[in-house]
Amino acid sequence: MRKLFREFIYNTFLLTLGSAICAVAVNGFLIPHGFLSSGITGVALIVYYKMSLIPVGWLYLLINIPVFLI
Questions:
Q1: 26, 56 contact by CB (below 8 A)
Q2: How far is 65 from 43, CA to CA, in rounded Å?
Q3: What's residue 46's pLDDT?
Q4: Which residue, 19, 31, 44, 55, has fewest beta-carbon neighbours within 10 Å?
C-alpha cells in the first residue's frame, strides 16, 4: 500500500514537471515568435493567433474537455 502511494506521488510529480516544461515552451518560445505546434496545442495556438480573446491556456483546456470525454 505504501509503495503504491509513493509511485502515485512520484508519477504525479513527473506529470506536473512535464506540464510545466511544456507551458514554459509555449509561453516562452512559441507565442512570442508566432510559431505553431502540433496536436491540440497547435489548434489552441491557431485560435489564439486568429482571435486572441482568451489566453492560450484556457483555449487548451476548453479544446481538451471534449477530447477527454470522447
A1: yes
A2: 14
A3: 94
A4: 19
Q: C-alpha distances in angstroms, 19 versus 35, 54, 57?
A: 19, 20, 11
pTM of this structure = 0.77
**All cell numbers assigned to 33:** 515568435
Q: Is the dihedral of CA 11, 14, 18, 24 positive or negative?
A: positive
Task: Output the DSSP codes for 1-59.
Answer: -HHHHHHHHHHHHHHHHHHHHHHHHIIIIIHHHT---SHHHHHHHHHHHH--SS-HHHH
Q: Determine the average pLDDT of the residues in 19-43.
A: 91
